[in-house]
Every structure is written in C-alpha cells, then in structure tokens.
Amino acid sequence: xxxxxxxxxxxxxxxxxxxxARPRQSxxxxxxxxxxxxxxxxxxxxxxxxxxxEETRRKVLDAARSLGYVPDPAARRLAAARNDLxxxxxxxxxxxxxxxxxxYPFLVGIEQEAAARGYDLVLFTGSSTGGAGAAxxxxxxxxxxxxxxxxxxxxxxxxxxxxxVADGFPVVHIGRRDELEGLAWVGxxxxxxxREVVARLAALGHRRIVLIREDDDAPASTDRExxxxxxLEAAGLPGGPAAVFRSAAxxxxxxxxxxxxxxxxxxxxxxxxxxxxxxxxxxxxxxxRDAGADCPREVSLALLGSPPxxxxxxxxxxxxxxxxxxxxxxxxRLLAALVAGEExxxxxxxxxxxxxxxxxxxxxx
Amino acid sequence: xxxxxxxxxxxxxxxxxxxxARPRQSxxxxxxxxxxxxxxxxxxxxxxxxxxxEETRRKVLDAARSLGYVPDPAARRLAAARNDLxxxxxxxxxxxxxxxxxxYPFLVGIEQEAAARGYDLVLFTGSSTGGAGAAxxxxxxxxxxxxxxxxxxxxxxxxxxxxxVADGFPVVHIGRRDELEGLAWVGxxxxxxxREVVARLAALGHRRIVLIREDDDAPASTDRExxxxxxLEAAGLPGGPAAVFRSAAxxxxxxxxxxxxxxxxxxxxxxxxxxxxxxxxxxxxxxxRDAGADCPREVSLALLGSPPxxxxxxxxxxxxxxxxxxxxxxxxRLLAALVAGEExxxxxxxxxxxxxxxxxxxxxx
DNA sequence: GCGCATCAGTAATACGCATTAACGATTTCT
DNA sequence: AGAAATCGTTAATGCGTATTACTGATGCGC
Lengths: 365, 365
What we know:
2 copies of one chain form a homodimer.
Chain A: H1 25-32, H2 36-44, H3 54-67, H4 73-80, E1 85-90, H5 104-116, E2 120-125, E3 148-152, H6 158-166, E4 171-174, E5 184-186, H7 190-204, E6 209-214, H8 219-234, E7 244-247, H9 250-253, H10 256-264, E8 269-273, H11 279-290, H12 295-298, E9 300-304, E10 319-321, H13 324-339, E11 352-354
Parallel strand pairs in A: 1-2, 1-3, 3-4, 4-5, 6-7, 6-8, 8-9
Antiparallel strand pairs in A: 10-11
The structure holds a DNA duplex.
C-alpha cells in the first residue's frame, strides 16, 4: 500500500516571465469541453484509429482557432520520437568566405530535397564543436543530435566516421568513399562522363587522344582514367599506357616540346582530369600556349570536369559538369532512407556533358 | 486506495527496426552506475545546487563519452531548458538556385558568430511545411524548437512573426523592419554610407551631384536619400528637390537628353540607389552611354550599394558594400542576448566605401 | 432480452530531460 | 551523546503531445 506521499510539487520552477500563456491542448480541451486526448486526435486529423463525431471535431477546431493554438514542436517531436532533423557536416566551414570553393551547389540540392521531405537541417562545421571551440576527438559526436547526418568534403576524420557508422547512426558521405567499410555515400559517375567526352572527341574525328593526369590514386582520378580508356576502346582507338600521361608535377614535366612531340605523332586531342588545384588542366593550357598551338583548330582540349574558378572566364571549356545539386538531393534521399531504417542505395549520379569551344574537328592532315 | 492497474504499456509503438537506439541519459546512468538524475546534473555542468563528487563526475563523463551520448534537443526544449540551437528561417529557399540572390553572405557571418558562441544552427526552410507543401498559419511554428530564430528576407509573414514576438520567443530580423512593433532587427547604415559617397565625390571636386532613385518608400530608399542630402549639406553643396530625380520608371524617363541637360547645367556626378532590380543604376548607365558621355572623364557615377550581378563585370563601380557577413554576425549577437533574457540592441552596421573606376575628378570647366 | 459488435471519447502512459524535495551517511556543533 | 548541519545522490515529478487500452452507450441479430 505504499502510496506515494503528496509532494509539494517538485519539478518545474515557476514559469519565466516571458512565457505568455501560449495555449496548450489542455486549454483547448477545456474550452471545447472534451479531453486533451480528443484534441490531439482531432488536430492530428488522422483518418485511422479512434473516430470523432463531426460535432466534436468542429467544437475542437473552433476552440483551437479561437485560442490561436499552435502545437509545440518540441513536445511533438519528443512524443513522436523523431526530430526530423538532418545534420550537414563539413569539416571546413560550411560557409567559407571564398564562395567559389564552397559547398553551395550541394546545399542547394540538400535544402530542396530536405524541405520536400519535411526535414530541417542542422549545420555543423569542423570549427564549431559546441562552444568549447576546441575540435576535440569527439567533435563529430554533436551530429548525433540529428536523426542522421550528411558529410561534405573528404576531410571528415575516418575514425570518428567509422565510429558513427558502427553505432548505427545514419551517415551519408557526399563523394565516393569506398575505403570506409559500411559508409553510405553518393557520387558522380566519372567513368561514364569521361567515356562520353572521349566519344564526343572521336565523333569529331580525333583518332589519337592523350589523357593528362596527376599522380594520385583517389577514386576520382582512377575513375576518370578508367572511363577515358573505355571510351577509347569503344571508339576503336589506341589505348594502353601510351595514351595516358601521368605526372606528379605536370606543370613542369608537360613541356611544349613534349606536346609538340605528341602532335607530330598524330595526337590531335588532349584530355585533362579535374583536380582540386586544376594542375593538369593548367599545365595543359600552358603547354599549348607555349607551343604556339591554335587551340580549337590545331589541337582540341577537353577537361574531365569543370575548370577552376580562376580560369572560369575565357572560352567555354569542353568537358562535363558535376551535378552537385543533384548529388546533394540524392544524398538526402539516401539519408532519409537510412533514417527510416531502410537498406537503401542511391545510384551514381550522371554528369552532364558540356560542349565548349576548346574542341573541334582535328586539322585536315 | 485505487492503485492504478498495471497496463500492458500503452503509449509508444515499438521503435522501427533500423533505429539503433540513440543513447539516453538513463543508459549513461546505468553504465556509470548512478541515477539518471545524477547524469543530468553532471552534464548540465552547473556549479550551483547539488554537488557531485569528482569521482562520480568522471565516471559519468566517461560513460557518456564512450556511448557517444548527445542530449535530445526536443527533450531539452520541452523541459523548459535551452538546446543551444538557433534557428535560421527564410521564407524563400535559403540556397536558391540563383546563387546571386542567396542569403549566403549572411550565413557566413551567422555561422561564424554562432559557432563562436557555441550554438548550432537549424535551417528552417520556409517552403517545407512538412512535405504537404501547404503553408499553414503555423508555418513558422516549427522554429520554436530552437532557442531563438533569425529571419531572412522580408517575406516572413508579419502575422506569424508578431505572434512569435508576442509569445516572448526570441526573434531577430535581418534587415530593417520598423513597422513591426517590438521586432528586433539589425540593419546596415545606409545613411552614413550614402553620405560618405557624396563626401568622396565632393572631395574629388564635384559641385553639383544628382541622385537617381526609384519611386519607392522602403526604408532602404529613404535612408539613402536622407544620407545623400546630408552629404550635400555637409559639403556645402546645393541640395533640395532639384538634386533628386525620382521616377517610377527611370529606364524610360531618364533619357540621354535629360542627362545632357543636367550636365549642361553643371552637374558633374550622378548617384543611383541600389534596388533589387538595379533599375536606377541600369537607367543611369544607359543614359550615359546614349548621351555618348565618357564615364570617368566627363561624368562621374556612383552607386549607393553594389551593382546587380549581371552587371558585375566591367569596371569596378564606385559606391559601397553592404556588410552582409557582419550583419549576420550582429544578428546572432543580438539574438543570443535576447535568448539570455537581456534587453539588447545592436547598432547599425556600417557599410564599407568601395572606390571604383566610375568616379574621378570633374572635367576642367 | 441477451450476447456481441460499433461508435465516441477518455484515462493512462511514454517520450527524454531538468529540477528539486527528500534521504541516508557523515561530520560538526552544543 | 544527541541534535544539527553538510554532503552526495536519488526518487519523483512536470514539460506538451501522441498513442493505445479501456469504458459507456447504443444498435443489432436472433
């Protein structure tokens, strides 16, 4: 019989002054002469479950309207056991001052898709670790406040990421990330895009094409080379190691002489991979200029990606665009699926070929 | 004695399969061998009230870290505490496809300042009303999940905003917003900036200057005119109605003839206000070109703001830059103060003069 | 008339956390 | 020594809403 003794109401401190009597469901209920549960049922508007008479429904709705009732999102989310929050984490500031290098295009897609699915976004950055300011090893822990989290950029520490994944926290990485077992990611289809670029060059009449790439084993690089070679093969053009120039320092090793050598050998088109620095592309342009070659007429150039922002002006570069916005949206879709407990995958997002002024038919030999 | 009968646990439905239970305080407590209340006390980190032994504190912190515990923001809010979340709400997409119209520069400042103060940002997307797409009267209600909220753009419905303010919910509007009583806002000091532009022109030797403005009564417009006139006055130059050309359709009414007329009258410099469309500035440029006037040499031009993005290339325009980043930061400061219950105000943020190539000394008469 | 299904609505929880009265164990005071 | 103060921790409670299980009141069929 140990009936709990009446306490002198512990718990809540007196409401702070600011709290105007924002109406609660219970007040709506009192005004309508029904129970709080009924109010909840009516306002939820679900067709299922308990049935409510039309009269009661109207009474409740009238009462709610007259009181100006708005549901408390905190309570709603607490009861629903889901916050409808998706995290967006970028190791560098999400909004770097340099707009060009920003994740902006991704965010466009992320926001759209998240909004369409009724999620709000929580923005995290590597620098903001919740007040402490010191990006400790548990910096990524904060993202757990969301239902799941998107990661932008390849700087997210693998260890922490692994930890999140291992704990079953829904995580999606934007950009291919194979090396991390179990990490979900979305990426662009560099293979197909690179192949298409080659196909276009071949269609223009080019018979010998050389790829300029840096000395890097990132998936983004190997995928491009792979697609490049597949493109050659599909067009029945000579592939093999001779078709690829790989250099750790293309800006020095890709000389005008070497370029001239290729051209004398019958090479009429060059393709460069895109990298953060744009090194391969820069080197290629420089070599062409130094060699005094007329770009669209004597030699065709294409870029497997977009030119670096500082080279953005000038003639449009033949190549392909990475669909960053669509990647962002795809990432949200995948993440939403994971949050819902589904075992989903998103296909690679295809890139869009960009025809430009740097490629044309080969010179009549 | 009516002891409540044991129910077969109503309430929560079983958690969806995918959800690996995010750790709760109770689990941290179990692992640390203490009660949930103790965990809460330790994590709250308050110096006041109950005291906790150093040993217990460490046990709890270790347990929390090893589980990757992060408090649930909704529960925190509901328990009448704070969740260290600041909302950012924009009725239109925060990241529109058109980069130029975005709130991006504001976000840079918002993020920096929020991070520095230990807040995380929640992006409430206006268009997303829970997937339904229909923006109900409580579209803004979601922001109550955060401790306070920033509003971007003047599309936020006044009614809902007023409601939030009335309920004592901390709200800060970015951009002047006087008409809404009690709404806190931060804005740029157009008056001083405009005055400075005039001062600079006067310093170059201009003695007659005319302002081209549209027919608008927005604060942003009247402030600029006000500053312009103050600048004239300070320089001892002729002001009055003759110095201001106000037109609802400047692109048609600001003809080359009219411009020539002013120039023949001794006007050597023109100033245009910045608007969304950039109408005044466009009209001015067109008129100058049509009149065949040589811009820096025969006539000086200045813009009270930044040129519209599609006119961004070409020579640098003399005028001033709106410090969007600093505005964002100021907004966060103000909001943080409001959240803390202080009665704060932020001063107007001053704009930065931008010297350009469109203004120079007047022609030797 | 007596079960049985249907309908309308309510009571009782639970969600996760913060808060505070109360409590056991010491230590200190008178 | 007994009372009182101190310390460290816990039990109990509330925040506002969503979700059942359950209760009365009808209506139905035989």
